[in-house]
Input
Amino acid sequence: MSKTLVEFINTCPCCDEYVNIIEKTTSQYGSSIDLKVYYAGKDFDYVRKYGQVNKGTMIINERKKYDSLTTTVIENAIAEAVAEADSQADS
Output
């Protein structure tokens, strides 16, 4: 089983709720997901990878970016990425 990388760039205190939702959602998949949360102004690793980010953004497998976040969008995006990783591992 290959791992899914979920990254979230937290740009403001309003984004803390998204961190909670993402942590709760990723915990359902156990060790098949690596989660990395960046805090703007504190962490700078993401700037090299993604450039300047001004809005809370979730990135999956360093390819798909989601910046219009809701609980449904987060849950569906993570479920889709895990399913895709599982199907690639099976083939």
